[in-house]
Amino acid sequence: MEVEPKYTFVPLAQKNYVGINNKTTQNLLSKWGINGNFVIQHFSFNEPFQQYHKYHLADAFFKENSVANELIIKQGNCWVKQGMTASIVDIKPVACSVLSMSFFDKLKDPKNGIVYKSGTICKRYDMEIENFLISDRLRGMLLDEECPEYNLYSKDDRDEFIFRIFQMLVLGGTLCQYEDILDPYLDITKTIYKDLIRVQKQNDSDLSVSTLALQVVAKDDRAQAYFPYNPSHIQNIGFLLVDTIAHEITTFLHQFGEYSLSGAI
């Protein structure tokens, strides 16, 4: 029987993401109430890794002191290093296979009722779902299971990491100024996705995503979730992105709330 590796993790310096740190991206993230509410961090590990080690890797990651001492979590309106190791780690694989923004073409086709030919998002009657005001068909597609637009994307599509990014941007934070057109949401989704994942060639021509995505909820010794805090809220999400080639882990944590300058990425 194979013995699972004993992983050791080393914190890495913050990366300079060309896309995410771009002024246009930062301005839109602020407009949507996202900027200042998410943190990205980086760690490396040297031990061998296979796909079937993913649960063990994620569990070990949150229980390692070197990670706990560096991991930034949100308390109130501040991002802090609390030094907390996990007692329980809930782990869910997230599909990460999309290679083209054609994935979102269904939203751009006026026949599907999300946008007009001009690209303007179609309005609809107001409805509150999960404390979000649904006043257009784009948000209806995301949250209103009773509307026909909801069925444009299957459950598997909605589980894709790129769809999760898109949803996070469209729903926004507490102080969110919504867009009237679709393109800005797609542009920033592409920017963040491209910055966070690695694409590699296979057989000299075929491309594939080599990044492994995991949605995680880390809990303390009282079974209280802290990464993310209050994970029952749709906008409180935590991911581990494992670069299987470079042996690096990127953490992505978003906490719903008002815009916070402290800890802004």
Automatic annotation (TrEMBL):
Q: In terms of one coarse class, where is the protein primarily found?
A: cytoplasm
Supply the name of the protein. Cilia- and flagella-associated protein 300
Q: Tell me the keywords, alphabetical order.
A: Cell projection, Cytoplasm, Cytoskeleton
* Alphabetical list of InterPro entries matching this protein: CFAP300 (IPR029416)
Family of this protein: Belongs to the CFAP300 family.
Summarizing the function annotation, the protein's role is: Cilium- and flagellum-specific protein that plays a role in axonemal structure organization and motility. May play a role in outer and inner dynein arm assembly.
Provide the Gene Ontology terms for cellular component: axoneme
Q: Which locations, inside or outside the cell, does it occupy?
A: Cytoplasm, Cytoskeleton, Cilium axoneme
